Amino acid sequence: MLVEQVWTANSGRNFNYLIACGETGEALAVDPLDHEKCLAAAKAKGWTITQVLNTHHHRDHTGGNDQVIAATGAKLLAHAGAREQIAGIDRGLQAGDVIKVGRSVELECLDTPGHTMSHICVLSRGDTRALFSGDTLFNAGAGNCHNGGHPSELYHSFATQLAKLPDATLVYPGHDYICNNLRFTLDREPDNARAATLLPEMERQDTNRPMVTTLGLEKQINTFFRLSSPSVIRRLRDAFPDLGEQPDQQTVFLRLRELRNKW
Ligand SMILES: [Zn+2]
Ligand SMILES: [Zn+2]
Predict the structure, then answer these.
(1) In the chain, which end has fewer C-beta atoms inside a 10 angstrom radius, N or C?
(2) Is 57 a catalytic residue?
(3) What would the pLDDT profile of 52-97 be if each residue is shown by its tens digit?
(4) Is residue 135 flagged as an active site residue?
């Protein structure tokens, strides 16, 4: 599996992706908003885009569909529940479906509601496990639920699906929000040493060649995976005095999501 991470440099800080088969050069474009950059990247690599995947219906993920499809004739794949929100879906996806790219790439679909109620993440099979997480999981953060989502669904997607993936899984999110997210982690958990050392490195990084995190690292630096951390809970009790001594993980997640909305 070959992955090209395309930095759009737009105000939304979107990442687009090309996932290609090294044997055939066939490629899947994930949320190719910046269609010019995605088409140029495919051309430079000698790849043919045969499929477009939208992780969800927000315009900053679907806005390049028409141009990429017009240029390549690619098929459009998206959550089966997003047919009313995304025009021209050729293949509606549900949990457990497998997307094949060329001969060597297989991507398994995860149904991960929360940011929207019809959101697909894909997980590569084989030697390299990589998660393309759209706006569900960001580096050091979680998607918001302002535009058609629901925080308790987001918690369940994290707890029952994402948190159970192997630590070595690579994480490829839909946006670059890592610096701001690390600042939120440090606001919630000031003694998080890994986040503290990572923040200045990330402030200096070239977003054209971003660090790719793993799920194991996310569990150290992403507040939304640190629901049992004593310092997270202690700090949360300052903001929400009604919180009990041992709040359950869902309660912690929902309160963190609420604080992040205003942060
Ligand atoms: Zn979104
Ligand atoms: Zn987005």
Answers:
(1) C
(2) no
(3) 999 999 999 999 999 999 999 999 999 999 999 999 999 999 999 9
(4) yes
Residue count of the chain? 263
| 247 vs 190: CA distance, rounded Å | 20
The contacts of residue 221 (CB under 8 Å, 6+ apart) are 140, 182, 185, 192, 194, 195, 198, 213
Task: Report the distance separating Cα 98 and Cα 107, nearest Å.
Answer: 5
Q: Of 31, 9, 35, whose CA–CA distance to 174 is shortest?
A: 31
Q: Spot the catalytic one: 60, 79, 111, 119.
A: 60
Would you say 221 and 195 are in contact if contact means Cβ atoms under 8 Å apart? yes
Cα 176 to ligand 2 centroid, rounded to whole Å: 10
Of the residues 31, 34, 57, 61, only one is catalytic, namely: 61
61 labelled catalytic: yes
Predicted TM-score (pTM) of this structure? 0.97
The token duo for 239 is: 């903001």
Active-site residue flag, 150: no
Residue recorded with tokens 């929400």: 240
Per-residue model confidence as pLDDT tens digits over 174-213: 999 999 999 999 999 999 999 999 999 999 999 999 999 9
From CA 248, how far away is CA 254, in angstroms rounded? 10
